[in-house]
Amino acid sequence: MKSLTEQYVEFATQLKMEDLPSNVRERVCELILDSLGVGIAGAASQPAKIARKCMEAQTSFKEAILWGTREKSSIYGAAFINGTSCHAYDYDDTHNWAEIHISSILVPCLLALGEKVKISGPKIIEVYTASYEMMARIGVIGNATILYGKGFHPSGIWGPFGSALATGLIMGLDKLKLVNALGIAGSFSSGLLEFQYDGSMTKRFHPGLASWHGMTAAFLAKDGFTGPATIIEGKKGCINAFTGDFGKMDLAITGLGEYYEILETHVKMYACVSGFSASIECLITIMNSNQIDPDQIEAIDVGLRELTMMWTRPPEEKPQNILSAQMNLAYCLAVAAYDKDVKLDQFSDERLKDHNILALMNRIKISADQELTALNINKKDTVILPGRVVVKTKDGRIFKHQLIYAKDSRGNRASREELQEKFTALSRPYIGDARSKEIIRMIYELEKLDDVSKLVRLCQSN
After folding, report:
1. Which residues neighbour 256 within 8 Å (Cβ) at sequence distance 6 or greater?
2. Is this prediction's pTM over 0.85?
3. Could you write out the DSSP letters of every residue in 8-35?
4. Same domain, yes or no, for 283 and 236?
5. What is the pLDDT of residues 5-43, one digit of tens each?
6. Is residue 260 located within the same domain as residue 303?
7. In angstroms, rounded to a whole number, what is the distance separating the alpha carbons of residues 12 and 172?
8. Among 24, 212, 308, 316, which residue's beta carbon has the most beta carbons within 10 A?
9. Which of 354, 381, 403 represents a domain boundary (last residue)?
10. How far apart are the first and last CA of the chain?
């Protein structure tokens, strides 16, 4: 019987763009556009600046553009730095069964290598889709709930597999070398969640590290380095080592090539944990519909699915920095009550210290809701990002709103205009209006693009 890596490689090498459903091809374009937006803006972040400085000391190669800057690095450096930039503000997309920031891993390595070898848009679509499908499926069988409980970050654990496959496919490795690349990638799996307790920066570089490591695995395989074909399901492989749970193995291959996991990806409309999105929307809806002033709020009661609870910091915990605020639903809700939004501006130093927001946080209660949790257990074909919010005002009024699908989860897709608006707001301050518009045009015509380096050049700052 063929190993999982052999079956994934067989699928990936046979996949052709023209065989993909139109909604899959469109989703690829949307996710690449979103990744470029968050990556261009993220280049101005402190983690990205430190990553650039680190790589400057390690390589003199100038092969690939660092988005949002006028700088270049090696293809490895670009994968690491651009991947770090994509995740620098936690505003990047998430596959919510696997709980992986897949695009922040794949797009940096694809465009860095694609820029160097000048691959076409159709090739990007093929490779991105094949690599995305494999990484998502490994993440699903890898059981994010158990990983979280053990302290592992799924993006760092499963990310090198996707980057290795993407790199190997672009380089035209044969099937045996692709299997070896994936076998090697498993030994690059890494990423711990201890950052949750102090908001330190390590979360930010997990996608970049995975992008870089997977690329390294593919280049090792290219030159004859070998890795175990059973790295995923073997007795000493990743599933057994990281979770020990083989209960979802039937999802590894079932429907491969017929159903695409990329359709389960959530583009964030708010710059925080994706599982917070529905709760934020519920609160904003209640306040706008009933013209409630935040100072009128006596209490807010929030229900979440259990998986999201694993990311939620205690409401009484005062955020010390951006990351700790992004993982604190009480802060996100409090700032949403006052600003009616949760974008990057809501995580400034001034907002983190706002006494009104901190006071409202103390009036918020958050708990696991078994009914919301059961929605994802009972409905296995679609990721559901639900939220329930009850607001009690000081004059005794009570308002409740529940949302099953957060904006841009599969049951409530964001419009093309909304996705473009997010991209433009993020990119325009760094690359200008003209380049932002041209990137949008080029992304939605990716099937016609003969050389992806034309797209990447537009990602440079003015």
Report:
1. 7, 11, 133, 137
2. yes
3. HHHHHHH--GGGS-HHHHHHHHHHHHHH
4. no
5. 999 999 999 999 999 999 999 999 999 999 999 999 999
6. no
7. 12
8. 212
9. 403
10. 54
